[in-house]
Amino acid sequence: MEVREPRKIGEEVYTTGEMGMGIIEQSLMVRTDEGLVVVTGCAHPGIVEIVRKAKALSGDEVYLVLGGFHLGGKSRREIEGILSEFRRLGVRKVAPC
Questions:
Q1: Element (H, E) at 31
Q2: How far apart are CA 17 and CA 33, in angstroms?
Q3: pLDDT tens track for 53-72
Q4: How many helices (H) and strands (E) does the chain have?
Q5: Pairing verdict, β 13-15 and 28-32
Q6: How far is the CA of 15 from the CAs of 41, 43, 54, 59, 68, in angstroms?
Q7: Domain coordinates of the chain in residue numbers?
Q8: Alpha carbon of 84 to those of 18, 65, 73, 79, 88: distances in Å?
Q9: Which of 35, 64, 66, 68 is paired with 12 by a 20 to 30 Å CA distance?
């Protein structure tokens, strides 16, 4: 089954739907007692954009962002900007790989 739009795929488990222009990806959203857990692939669409969409779709506060953040080649300033945006969005924990 091909899924392009956001979709519930299990109890408290959802997809963001397809994101990105060149390399298209989806991310997984899991509602937990602590808040929303967002699981990414490589984050080619942009990690901040993924978090924004997950938060907008779910209406939940983001507890954890886990997975690829696509930070290779980013400058220190760009990474600090991403972290600042995470704080502004209320992300409580991150686990990049």
A1: strand 28-32
A2: 23
A3: 999 999 999 999 999 999 99
A4: 2, 6
A5: antiparallel
A6: 12, 14, 9, 14, 16
A7: 19-96
A8: 25, 14, 18, 9, 6
A9: 68
